[in-house]
Known about the structure:
Largest sheet: 2 strands, antiparallel
Structural class: mainly alpha
Oligomer: single chain
Radius of gyration: 33 Å
Distance between the termini: 53 Å
Order of helices and strands: HHHHHHHHHEEEE
Strand order of the largest sheet: 1-2
Strand content: under 5%
Number of helices: 9
Shape: elongated
Helix content: 55-70%
Amino acid sequence: MKKIYLPFLILITSACSSLFMSDNEEKIMNTCKAGNWYEVGKTEGEEGNKNNYSQYVQNCASHKVTPSKVDFEKGYTDGIGQYCTPQNSQHLGAMGVSLKNNCPAKLHNSLEKSHIEGLKKYCNRSNGYGLGESGKEINNNCSKDLEGDFFEGYIQGKKAFEQKRLVEQTQEIIKDQIKASQENQIFDRKQEILRRANYKHQSCRANFECEIKDSCEQHKCSKTGMSCTFNSDCSLKGSCESSTCSY
């Protein structure tokens, strides 16, 4: 009997493991099983990351996959070659992005100069304002002779962001208060309906005898004011307990 159920138990265990797998673990598993190591290495290089082939070996070991070092290294070489160019370095600077220190040492000075040229385009009041208005934290990429205007713009943008957030929070509070008020009104109306009709003491034999009908008119229940689509949405349902309706 154990041999018959063993495959089934393995399948269930595997399914449960996949269910509780984190997004990062699932991404690692998919990368390992895809086996496109040239593209993986190239992507790492294009993003300016260090050569972390050994990390992929470690991550894929649990999936019984050994990354191709030849393909990864070739892809990484091509990718880092695209990252470590004066054009890309200047582009990163113009976007306010730091230059990662993973390029060959002989290129460091030329890339640094290109990056500074890009930062001159980025480090202005307008971009500082945009960064602050987005709610992001200020970076320290701008040099001292450029950071003044950039920082002042950031402060103004940050104020605008905080004001906008305050308005949104206030609107949410008001919205919650209105909703709570409407719910209280609906509850009061329900209680008034029950009180006037004396339904709480109505005799019954089944739950359906305790249902109070209402009609849906222009998406509002005529008696309680609740939102509705059909008449059935407006029914006040009770239960028959000890031959008496209870709500």
